[in-house]
Amino acid sequence: MIRLEDVHKYWDVPVLQGxxxxxxxxxxxxxxxxxxxxxxxxxxxxxxxxxxxxxxVLVDQSDITEYGESEMMETRRKFGMLFQNxxxxxxxxVGENVAFPLVRAGDIAEAEIAExxxxxxxxxxxxGSESKMPNELSGGMRKRVGIARATIASPxxxxxxxxxxxxxxxxxxxxxDLLNGIQDESRATVMAVSSDIIALRTFVERIAMIYQGRLIxxxxxxxLDDCEDPVVHQFIRGELEGPL
Amino acid sequence: MARFLRAVSNPIAAVGxxxxxxxxxxxxxxxxxxxxxxSLFPPRFDxxxxxxxxxxxxxxxxxxxxxxAFFVGGIMVVQSAVFVKxxxxxxxxxxxxxxxxxxxxGPILIGxxxxxxxxxxxxxxxxTMVVTEQIDGLRALSIDPMRxxxxxxxxxxVIMLFLLTVLGDLVALFGAMLFGxxxxxxEFGVFYSGLVNSIGIGDLMHxxxxxxxxxxIIALTSCHFGLNVRGGAVGVxxxxxxxxxxxxxxxxxxxxxxxxxxx
Lengths: 244, 263
Hints:
In chain A, about 35% of the residues lie in helices and about 25% in strands. In chain A, the strands form two sheets. A six-stranded mixed β-sheet of chain A has the order 6-7-8-3-9-10, with helices on both faces. In chain A, strands 2-1-4-5 form a four-stranded antiparallel β-sheet, covered by helices on one side. Chain A is α/β, with parallel strands linked by helices. Chain B has one domain. Classes of the chains: A alpha/beta, B mainly alpha.
């Protein structure tokens, strides 16, 4: 279970302002919001990649904001993360990238790693791409490699930051189809951020909207349309007139 | 009056800002050094990454360092040939070339060359990893970027600049000997005896201590600016520029103090 209690994050300006959130185990949760509203920072705060200025972040009842870097490293093993820019290591092949979480685990035989990498690449539709370099792949393929790397170690919590950013509608559908397939298999707790609201809503059970660092809606995806907040109303309908 | 005060205070403010900026970077570089030292006890860093960097930073720099050093040796002779001939002091050419190459010109020129080739590349590579979230990617996979990326690079740069300086010194002396023979007809034996009879191990150590220091300065400066890139591709360019300038400044300033201390 993940809990955020009154989380604030300031750089030069406030980025997160009093975020409270509770995510039960196995839930698929989505986050939407305008650009620069704090979506990625919120995800990175949950993973311990950013420390809140104040407030508590609890992962399985442990407050990770009190952790040092070494304890944080242990906690991050519970997470798989797909970054907005994929964050594929460009000095490694596709196979090495996908294998990396297993290699670093240190106790898995090479043959088993190779087999699991081949299986995972097959699952994301990239069989036989092990020896390619990330710069030889298209945007959609790189995204799929990122998903393969984020999920290969079967982490209990998976975080997807803009899984379909910059992709065409068909590839977007394929990616969400893939994410649904992986989720059916793993039953992990999922946090996903996307600007593509329509596609994201087909994937998540609960959804939240962040605006100016505050969660202004959090609830079941099916009730989002009933939200009376004018910001949410305008954002999900893409209207020109309104507070945004 | 207000305009005059503004005109006077603006340059002062600019100087003050530069001093604060330099102090901030210096503090960050020292902090990075302490973190690198802490990561070495116990020495747990990524060996494959270390070997990869030794090869990339060292082996691939050999041709350019040899070429530079060879002509540096030649320049020593061309500059001194006029006086050597005028005063009939050809036997001093070996001493002159050896003294200047081993103690000063070798370490500083090879250091600057290394900074331009390896240091700038290191900053660009780390900076690109920052802006494409690869550093966060490592942390998300429970990998300490300090042990995985920074320590192997710092060690590789220090070791390789030291070895390249040894190689460069040898090539520069060979170049000086060859050009001495071609330009003023100095026999190899005379050059050699002038070199070995007046140059001691102290002169060699003087230069090698400098090369170790320069290697550390280049490594820490390039890693610091690489890890602190802000603002995409433009930011990477700015950081590479700052790293090259910072390294050159560090090399020249530390050279002055080391020369003062070691002489």
